[in-house]
Here is the input.
Amino acid sequence: MSTVNNHLRTALHLATAGVPVLPLRDGKVPFGNCRACAGNACGGRPNMKRAGACRCPAPCHAWAAATTDPGLIASLLWAAAWQRAVCVGYHPGGAGLTVVDLDDAAAVGWAREALPPTRIVPTTRGEHWIYRGTMRSVNAVRDGVDIKSTMAYARWLGPGSGTITALPEVVRALTVKEPSPVRPTPQALAVPAPAGGGECRHRTPAYLERGIAMAEQRITEARSQVHTTVYRTFLAVLSAHGRCGCLTDAHVARLFAAAQAKGESPRHCTDAWTNARTKLGL
Here is the structure.
C-alpha cells in the first residue's frame, strides 16, 4: 500500500475512534491556509465562536483543521494534502487528551522521576506521555518539555504502551506562570502572630531543628514525584510552624536548598512554598 494510502488509512482509523486528525507536510507542520483564508481574510479558525468564523473545508488553520469527519478526511478537498503529507497529526485537546512531549533523554529522565506513569509513545529523540484530560498548551515549560493539548497538534506515532491515566496536577502546575526566579535564600516570611499574642511554643531549638532536619531528609530521599514531595513537605512544615512565627529565612533556605539539590528550580521552590501557604490560608 502506498504511503498516501497508509496515512489516509491511519487518519480514518483515528477519526473513527474520536481523535481529530489532520495531514502534516514536510517539516511535520500543518499545511498553510488556502488563498481564500490567507491573511485571516476568512474570519478566523473554524472553532472561534464569533461572527464570520471560517468554515473552510480545506485543511486550513493548522490544528483547528483537525476533524473526525471521515467524508471530509477522504474527500477530494483533502486529497492534494494527503499526496504531500509526511505523517498524520492530531489535536490532543479535541480527543480529551494532553501530551507531555519530552524532547530528549534528560527530559525523559525527569518525567520518570516526577510524573505518574501513563501511556508512553516513543519519538525520534524522546517520548510522548499521554494523559486523559485537557489543559492549555505551552511550549518549554521545562528544558526539553512541551505541553500539547488544546489549540495544538501532535504527531501520531503509534498507540504506544501502557494505560492512559488521568492528567495529574503536577503537569497542570508546569504551565502556571511562575514568579521570577529567586536565589536560594527566600524573602522574609510574613506569618500571622499566634492567637492571643502568646509566646511561640516552638521556640525550642531542638523541636524546630528536628522538624527542619526531618523535612530535609524527606526531600533528599525522594525517588520519584520530587515536585509533589517538595510541595507536601513544605505544606507539613508550614502546618506545624507557619502560624507561630518561629520560621526564619535560614530555615526556609535550608528547605529550598534540599529541593534544588533534587533538581527543583528556584522558581519551582517558590511556587511550591506559595501554594502551600495559600492552601493553609497564610
